[in-house]
Structure formats: structure tokens, C-alpha cells
Amino acid sequence: MLIVSVTCVVGLQWGDEAKGKIVDLLTEGHDVVVRYQGGSNAGHTVVAGGQSYKLSLVPSGIFRSQVQCVVAGGVVLNPASLLDEIDGLTSRNVPVGKNLMISDRAHVVCPWHFDEDRLLDKLTGGEAIGTTLRGIGPCYRDKVGRSLAVRLGDMYREGFRDQIARIVPAKRQILAGLGATPDEIRLDADEIYEQYRGYADRLAPHVADTTAYLLDAVESDKRILFEGAQGALLDIDHGTFPFVTSSNSSGVGVSSGSGVPGRYVTKVVGIVKAYTTRVGGGPFPTEQDNEIGQHIRDQGNEYGTVTRRPRRCGWFDAVAARYTARLSGVDVLSVMLLDVLSQLPELQVCTAYELDGQRINHFPSHVDDLRRVVPVYETLPGWQEEITAVRRVEDLPKKARAYVDRIAALVGRPVGMISVGPDREQTIFAEA
Ligand code: GDP
Ligand code: IMO
Ligand code: MG
Asked: Active-site residue 405, yes or no?
């Protein structure tokens, strides 16, 4: 069997690396685009034809109508949010019909998950995770816990009303235990059932066994593109736990989330910003909580796509990116938002850490160690030229090329694409 092209796009930092832009670009060479983890905590931006689109659950391949978009079983699905997204796209003349398929195995975000998310983030004491408050963690917790979970496929079964009626009293107790006031516990089983039955009716044309579909697709040589959400440093198992999301957001999540064995993936594209950002709590060794960070935030418009929170900004961390590139099996890098760094007189890149006076090259597994590391920086000269109109590597300022080459060398992977602006056109295809 010849595997034509099964590509995975994965963020190598703490999310928002501009995965949406690259997925949209690469969609041209693929038949199927798959979201396989995360949920409406994701906010992927695609800029096409001068129009900007924000996607949370719908795969970024939706703008090419011949492409089959799939939301696989590893995703946690907020039906109201998905329907809003479908309506928003349709109203802007982006067709969404049979070209969007949703797994009946996807777990459903229910009203109690939002309350749990909000109450828990306050309860933790110490530094909050600072979640997106989209119910993601609580929904994944119920998936793993099993007894209180709802899958999309359940919503079409006769027992769905009873399932909700059974879960609601348990959730009332849980919410009370988390400190919710009686007023806050507004769960009405009948109302929730009716509301979710309504969502189920509207989503019915899209619902399918996507595992079966994808296994058929790989076996019939369809070209598949997996669209990672979040970034590898937010991976539940391999990221900066507990300041992570609740799914496997590094490359390792593809097979569990989609049902397609990892051995079918022929290419992994690792997406990095030319610097680093993070939203929410947790250590961030190269953070620049100063005028440099503010400059990057202003130039890069670094405010959350989902929550509009200002993103924390800092220098490129090659220790972290090397770790996540290896973890995700990355073949080639895309370096994004390079234009944001134009005009800074000099740039710093973190090449190693110092932990308790010892130089280390690995990414610490415990968050307390990561908190204590001191970045070792290499200083590179900045460039002052505007680069947003550059389309060929050889037309980049020498110092910008040297900066990208240094990132590639430190991460240990070649650079295949360089992005100099949000638009599809603002992309340089480098030789990798
Ligand atoms: P994602 O979640 O990884 O898809 O990334 P987001 O959409 O949350 O954030 C990336 C932001 O950067 C979006 O607003 C993009 O439109 C924008 N963007 C993408 N590539 C570039 C680039 O090369 N330069 C600049 N200035 N902005 C970019
Ligand atoms: P995309 O796909 C950046 C962060 C949150 C928080 C932590 C846990 O657009 O790159 P959660 O709501 O998932 O329980 O929050 O993870 N986070 C993201 N940060 N980009 C994202 O998605 C993110 N999704 C979650 O800010 O720190
Ligand atoms: Mg985003």
C-alpha cells in the first residue's frame, strides 16, 4: 500500500502558533482535514481573500469545499458553539454541509462543565491554571471517569432523557461541593434534555463513525491532514503539568484522538512562532514582562483569539522547542510571525537553562524545576527592514535569515515555511 501523504500540523509551544494559517495553506494538497483533540478552547485564525475567520471546532480546511473536514472522537464538543460556528460560516458564504463530519464518539460539553471549570479554577489556591472556561477539563474528566459522561452518539438514543436525569442530581452535589451557591446550581434535567435534543437534530446530518471513515481513508490512499489544537507544551502528559490542557496536544495525540495508527503519518510539520507566547498561568522561562514583551504584544496583536486575554510574550525558547519537536516526531518547522520581530535592535534566543547553577539542555519534567531555571541566552542582531512583502528566502534581510537558520540549528529541524503576515500570500516556502 502506498501512503500518499498523511500530514500532521502541531504547535510546538503553548498554543496560538498560527496553526490555522498553515493548515489552510496545506489543505490544498489534501483530501481530508481532521481535528482530533481539544475543543472550543482552540481559536484558529484563517485569513483568506482579505477576510479573517476564527475557528474553534470546525477544521481549518473548511474553506475548500472539495475537502472533507472531520471532527474526530478525541475532540470534546460544545454543540452550541459548533452550531454558532457553522451559522457564522454559512452567513459568510462558506458552505458547511456534508463536507463536515463529526464523530459520534466525541464527548459532549454539558452546562455543568462550564460551572465546574469556573469553580475549580478559583478553588485551586496558588497560581490558577487560567483555563479558557470552556468546560474542557471537566468534560475530559467525565470522559475518563465514564459514569457521568455524554457522547454525541448518546444524544440520538432512546435512553438519552434518562441519562441526563441520572447525571443531573450527581452534578448538583458535585457543584455544591465545589462551593456553588443554590442559585448557581440551575440545572434542570428536562430543560437540558430538550436543549440538547435540539442541538442533536441540527447536527444529525454531520454525525458519523469517523474512526471507520478515517481507517477507510488511509487504506484507500486519501491524503489526510491532521490539525493539532493547542501546543505540545500544553500536552496533558508531556507538557508543563498542571498548567496544561486536558488532551494530548503534542503529536502523540493523533492516533488516540482519531483512531488512525501513528504509523500512517508520513510527515509532521511543527509550528513555532519566531518568539514565544503563553496564555494563562504556569512557568514561562523566557517571558519578557517588560517593554520588550509589550512591544511584541503590540506588533503581533497578541491577544487571545478565544478569550481576548493579553498573551504573555517572550523570547524564542530553543530548549522547549527542541523537546517538543522530538516528542512530536517533527520533520520540518514552520516559523511564524517573523515580521513581528522586525525593528528590534537585537534578539535573544534561549539555548540552554541553568538549574541550581548547573547548565542543562533538557526540558525539566517537573513544573517546580521549570520555575527555577534561568535561561541562557544567545544574542543575535535584529533587522530593521519591513519584511511583510517578502516572498522568497533570498529576499529576506541577511540578519532575518541568520535568525531563522539559528532557530533551525538549535531545534535540530529544517525550516520549510516562514510566515511574514497573516494572509495566505504572506508565506515564504523555504527549502527544507
Ligand atoms: P492558532 O491557534 O495556532 O491557529 O493561532 P491563532 O489564530 O490563535 O493566533 C495566530 C495569530 O497570528 C492570528 O491572528 C493570525 O492571523 C496571525 N498570524 C498568522 N501568521 C502571521 C504572521 O506571519 N505574521 C503576523 N503578524 N500575524 C500572523
Ligand atoms: P489554540 O488551538 C493557547 C490554555 C489556556 C490555559 C490552559 C488550560 O488556539 O492554540 P483549557 O481551557 O484548555 O482547560 O485551558 O491551556 N489554552 C490555550 N492557549 N491556545 C490554545 O488553543 C489554548 N487552549 C487552551 O489558556 O492556560
Ligand atoms: Mg489560537
From this structure: no
